[in-house]
């Protein structure tokens, strides 16, 4: 992290000394993410405390950890004489947050995505954890700086963004809040880099606290184009199947619309409203998309989205295309966002972006291809921005000039 100045104080130097042996991890929130983080931490031999507001929520988390570890035990992956139950029995469980963090070396907050609740958790931790303890948040969309501004030690606070499911997804983004120290970033990285996963962990530093961090930010502006396309399809009677086919290239596992159905449109609508406030009004969801969600067509989880999921994954024809957009245009939009990340100083090298996309979405990033195609892609972006009236899609200077090529 060369460009960030170390906030090196006596306290931080003490912290470094004590952290040479990180032992106690406290995970707050025993839901989907908290349970996954507790699982990989106990597997690694840390002492783990799991905290939630009610014992029944902790019980649910413990049950899911037992299931996850049970699968590994069956495959003989827990090691000689180690059972899922023996690992789970080591997890300390409590609903008393202040007491739980008293001996913590690292606290990771994975409570619901609500700023007030997260801030109250951070305040309690700040008041009760030892002075060397690092306070991390697993927020997927909020500003690390905002969450941690309630603490007296923002230099010890950091974003540590795991992906779901934690034991299987290798990507963990370590995010610098405005006041996070270099020391804190390094210790957080050391902790997560060796947590077990089916493939080696990839842990990029996110050097600026900007919406979406790296992976989610890269896929965000595809929605600026697609929101226009959803309305276009609805008004011109173009089928969603044909529009989905437009977004696919040979070897694509899923088109844009099917992937949206898979993840859930309620989630995406909420995220796009957030980007409309934080990045550009061009992210404001269009009429067709708002109607889809208002009609309860969330996708796979509700049985119906753009497509019908009641009989399992829909069988979609990828050969009949609508011809109003292309997978290459979506690549150009993604490359443009990668260049914005470089301009904003979120990352210093485009290779980090491609590696992040590979680890987070299991597909190659587009920056490598942009090296060859940036001139053509810049023209495509100029054309589409003018056609649909979305300024955000215009190529940024870093892309159109090709300067990003110097920042491999
Ligand atoms: N689900 C994902 O795919 C995903 C991916 C990356 C990051 N995240 C982020 O991780 C965090 C947790 O998400 P999740 O999907 O695990 O949510 P979840 O709803 O499954 O779990 C949240 C848990 O937090 C508990 N909780 C609420 N208030 C609490 C408090 N004051 N103290 C202790 N526990 C409290 C809840 O009882 C619940 O068990 C969110 O910030 C989310 O944005 C989620």
What structural keywords apply?
eight-stranded mixed beta sheet; N-(1-d-carboxylethyl)-l-norvaline Dehydrogenase, domain 2; binds nicotinamide-adenine-dinucleotide; alpha/beta; about 400 residues
Structure, explained:
- By secondary structure, this protein is of the alpha/beta class.
- It folds into 2 domains: 10-209, 3-Layer(aba) Sandwich (Rossmann fold), CATH 3.40.50; 214-408, N-(1-d-carboxylethyl)-l-norvaline Dehydrogenase, domain 2 (Orthogonal Bundle), CATH 1.10.1040.50.
- It has 18 helices and 8 strands.
- It has helices spanning 10-18, 32-43, 55-74, 84-88, 97-100, 115-128, 144-148, 182-193, 215-219, 222-236, 240-246, 256-263, 265-278, 287-294, 327-344, 350-361, 367-388, 397-400; strands spanning 24-28, 47-51, 92-94, 106-109, 134-137, 157-162, 172-175, 205-206.
- An 8-stranded mixed sheet has the order 3-2-1-4-5-6-7-8, with helices on both faces.
- α2 links the parallel β1 (24-28) and β2 (47-51).
- α2 (32-43) crosses α3 and α15 crosses α17 (367-388).
- The two termini are 16 Å apart.
- The model is unreliable at 1-9 (pLDDT under 50).
- The structure holds nicotinamide-adenine-dinucleotide.
- Nicotinamide-adenine-dinucleotide binds at residues 28-34, 51-53, 57, 110-113, 117, 121, 138-140, 162-164.
């Amino acid at each position: 992290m060369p460009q960030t100045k170390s906030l090196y104080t006596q306290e931080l130097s003490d912290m470094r000394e004590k952290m040479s042996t990180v032992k106690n991890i406290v995970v707050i929130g025993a839901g989907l993410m908290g349970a996954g983080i507790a699982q990989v931490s106990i597997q690694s031999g840390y002492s783990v405390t799991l905290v939630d507001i009610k014992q029944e929520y902790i019980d649910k988390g413990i049950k899911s950890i037992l299931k996850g570890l049970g699968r590994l035990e069956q495959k003989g992956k827990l090691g000689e004489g180690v059972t899922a139950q023996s690992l789970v029995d080591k997890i300390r469980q409590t609903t008393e947050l202040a007491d739980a963090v008293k001996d913590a070396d690292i606290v990771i907050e994975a409570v619901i995505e609500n700023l007030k609740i997260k801030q109250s958790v951070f305040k309690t931790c700040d008041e009760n954890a030892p002075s060397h303890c690092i306070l991390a948040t697993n927020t997927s969309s909020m500003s690390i700086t905002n969450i941690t501004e309630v603490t007296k030690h923002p230099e010890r606070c950091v974003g540590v963004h795991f992906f779901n499911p934690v034991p299987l997804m290798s990507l963990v983004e370590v995010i610098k809040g405005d006041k996070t120290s270099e020391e804190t970033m390094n210790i957080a990285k050391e902790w997560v880099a060796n947590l077990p996963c089916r493939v080696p962990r990839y842990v990029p530093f996110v050097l600026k606290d900007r919406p979406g961090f790296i992976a989610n930010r890269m896929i965000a502006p595809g929605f600026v184009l697609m929101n226009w396309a959803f309305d276009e399809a609805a008004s011109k009677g173009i089928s969603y199947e044909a529009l989905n086919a437009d977004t696919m290239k040979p070897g694509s596992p899923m088109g844009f619309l099917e992937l949206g159905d898979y993840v859930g449109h309620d989630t995406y609508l909420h995220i796009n409203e957030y980007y409309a406030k934080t990045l550009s009004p061009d992210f404001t969801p269009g009429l067709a998309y708002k109607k889809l969600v208002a009609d309860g067509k969330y996708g796979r989880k509700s049985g119906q989205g753009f497509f019908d999921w009641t009989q399992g994954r829909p069988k979609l024809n990828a050969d009949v295309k609508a011809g109003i957009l292309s997978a290459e245009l979506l690549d150009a939009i993604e490359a443009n966002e990668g260049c914005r990340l470089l301009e904003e100083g979120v990352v210093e090298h485009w290779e980090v972006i491609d590696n992040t996309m590979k680890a987070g979405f299991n597909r190659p990033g587009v920056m490598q291809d942009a090296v060859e195609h940036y001139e053509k892609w810049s023209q495509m972006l100029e054309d589409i921005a003018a056609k649909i009236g979305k300024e955000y899609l215009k190529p940024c200077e870093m892309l159109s000039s090709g300067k990003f090529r110097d920042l491999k």
